[in-house]
Amino acid sequence: MRTSLAVPVGAALLLAAPLAMPAPASAQAVAGSKYTVCNFDDPSVPKANRQYPFRFMLSTALANTTRPKVRKAVRSVQEVLRAVPIRDDQGRRVVVDGSYGPQTAQAVTRFQRRQSLVVDGKVGPQTWRRLGNKYCWRFH
Known about the structure:
Helix content: 25-40%
Strand content: 5-15%
Structural class: mainly alpha
Number of helices: 4
Largest sheet: 2 strands, antiparallel
Number of strands: 4
Strand order of the largest sheet: 1-2
Radius of gyration: 17 Å
Order of helices and strands: EEHEEHHH
Distance between the termini: 32 Å
């Protein structure tokens, strides 16, 4: 039996559905997006999203971007770095805000050094794959 609940004008109509275990907040925020390090199409089985979605590197040059796809990708990188955990030069955990600022660049540099990658503080295809392949499971 399906039931519906009417809500005030301007809000969505909610339909009752079978309950499932909720995915972690980080998974819910990026579910089903090709612009994330981890692919959450099926939150019970996180896997790396091997496809790097841009023709440019994520770096501090994009710190003030308003492009939603870039901000979503940066937020995803920050969530993985925070989950690992990788800290900035002052020992602080990465702030997940979607802005690729100096703190994110420092954390990426530390991650690259630990993973024996080219250390440039930017996220490109190699760093993207390494973040995903090694750390997507930490969201569950």
